[in-house]
Amino acid sequence: MDPRDTAPDSWEQEDDVEATIDGQLDSALLSLNVNAKPFVPNVNAAEFVPTFTGNAHSESEDSVVAVEKISTMEASESAAPVENGDSELTTEEPWDQIEAEPNEKEPGGGPRGDREPSMAATTEETAPEMMEEEEETPAPKVPATQPDAPKKEHINVVFIGHVDAGKSTIGGQIMYLTGMVDKRTLEKYEREAKEKNRETWYLSWALDTNQEERDKGKTVEVGRAYFETDKKHFTILDAPGHKSFVPNMIGGASQADLAVLVISARKGEFETGFEKGGQTREHAMLAKTAGVKHLIVLVNKMDDPTVNWSLERYEECKEKLVPFLKKVGFNPKKDIYFMPCSGLTGANLKEPTDMCSWYSGLPFISHLDSLPNFKRSSDGPVRLPIVDKYKDMGTVILGKLESGCIFKAQQLVMMPNRHVVELLSLLSDDVETDDAQPGENLKLRLKGIEEEEILPGFILCNAENLCHSGRTFDAQIVIIEHKSIICPGYNAVLHIHTCIEEVQITALICLVDKKTGDKSKTRPRFVKQDQVCIARLRTAGTICLETFKDFPQMGRFTLRDEGKTIAIGKVLKLVAERD
């Protein structure tokens, strides 16, 4: 029997064993002895494996290795019995602690204990766990160049258009082409989609993570993802196309710098989306009202058998859309760019396609990269409208920083309830950062306020320059679509930045001539479709808002009623509350 396997009768006896081992050590091994002492805990952690798995045989083998390592270490340091005893005792202490730790904490031990057994355990045990984790979080991969992400210009792109035009599919395809979703995940989605006889939907599942959205093939909430090009960092906001979810779409469009209007070139589908009740018209108008200046029109499904990359069909869609977009307020020469593509095959999204020889422009991603930089004032007052909030180790809010700069540990004020809050951490597109510039989509963890005390539409401001809040304001309104007349006392739903509130038109002040801009001398008794008026509005609760002249992002609004957008407007004057 090896003398090292038995307990020594005395320390001298153990010294003899060590002396023989010491003689066998070569000089190369002796040079490692400096690092040997900090390495002791790792030896103990490895030795803990058998108690976790309950394997008695491996325990004895591991103990041999451990004793051998400890003894070689001690021998190299000194042969004196007292020191030897000391070092033995010190190695004994963490052993006891490690034995006790798994019982005190959750089963499986600490992080080190966790790691070792998982290596020793069979792959059959770990594989299902990994699969479960993947299914729970189908979040996009974090790109390798994340530390530099905030330094690149940050642009928020909202995908809008009629239901089933292919917005989520194009978003998923872009994420795949830019490496945000790996091939294996997409193959998994494809298998699952095939099982449900929905094989063409698998790309949209990268953004439609909700089970209900996947089953019905309709986006409900605004999907979020991000990708990077050489020069810029983009956040994708995938807006729902269905008319029932237009309020969600308005919330997404209010965060965007750039809108991508997706239209389907397939026979019948374009016409449905563009008719009076279709969402192509409404979404384009809402995007303009939300402050989107630049619009890219993606003519999707060009690979469809009914279209087959036909220039005639592309031009037909273009001819019908341009007059309408012009009427909404986009300049066809400067603000609008048309582009054919196929979301399902990825043609003309990243690389040009041979199928479309008549299109000479850049593919979609390259075109986004070549856009001029947006002018943003970082020295303005802090304004961050809140889109969403939830609890996660504290209060977390989501929103886009409209102006000003914020940084970690800064004291800010939540309006309109005037709570003073502190920023504990900032995440820009799921990457932690110390400060943020205007235009970034942020997740902020706050201290000093409960999640229940926040509502979407509240605004984070700096204490030196608070935003205005109130209930009564004067605004210029354009009536877009309404069957009957609108009189004082009319109620609607107001969408202003990320806030949704009930509103009443309390008085009509004057009519405005569309061509000359002249105001009528007398008060109108009513307004009807296509008229412009100045009216006094009063909301049901206190909201945060600014005049359009001072802060355009917080001075534009839409009025909706019975599921339709009836009017768009801008805030001209805030009226002080009477006591």
UniProtKB/TrEMBL annotation:
UniProt xrefs under InterPro entries: G_TR_CS, GTP-eEF1A_C, P-loop_NTPase, T_Tr_GTP-bd_dom, TRAFAC_GTPase_members, Transl_B-barrel_sf, Transl_elong_EF1A/Init_IF2_C
Reactions that this protein is recorded to catalyse: GTP + H2O = GDP + phosphate + H(+)
A GO molecular-function annotation: GTPase activity
Pfam family, one: GTP_EFTU
Biased composition (Basic and acidic residues): 102-117
SUPFAM superfamilies linked to this entry: EF-Tu/eEF-1alpha/eIF2-gamma C-terminal domain, P-loop containing nucleoside triphosphate hydrolases, Translation proteins
Gene Ontology biological process terms from the UniProt entry: nuclear-transcribed mRNA catabolic process, nonsense-mediated decay
Matches recorded under Gene3D superfamilies: P-loop containing nucleotide triphosphate hydrolases, Translation factors
Domain Tr-type G: 152-378
GO CC terms of this entry: cytosol
UniProt cross-references to PROSITE patterns, sorted A to Z: G_TR_1, G_TR_2
Region (Disordered): 74-150
Keyword annotations of the record: GTP-binding, Hydrolase, Nonsense-mediated mRNA decay, Nucleotide-binding, Protein biosynthesis
Biased composition (Acidic residues): 85-101, 126-137
PANTHER family: TRANSLATION FACTOR (PTHR23115)
UniProt record similarity statement: Belongs to the TRAFAC class translation factor GTPase superfamily. Classic translation factor GTPase family. EF-Tu/EF-1A subfamily.
The name this protein goes by in its record: G1 to S phase transition 1, like
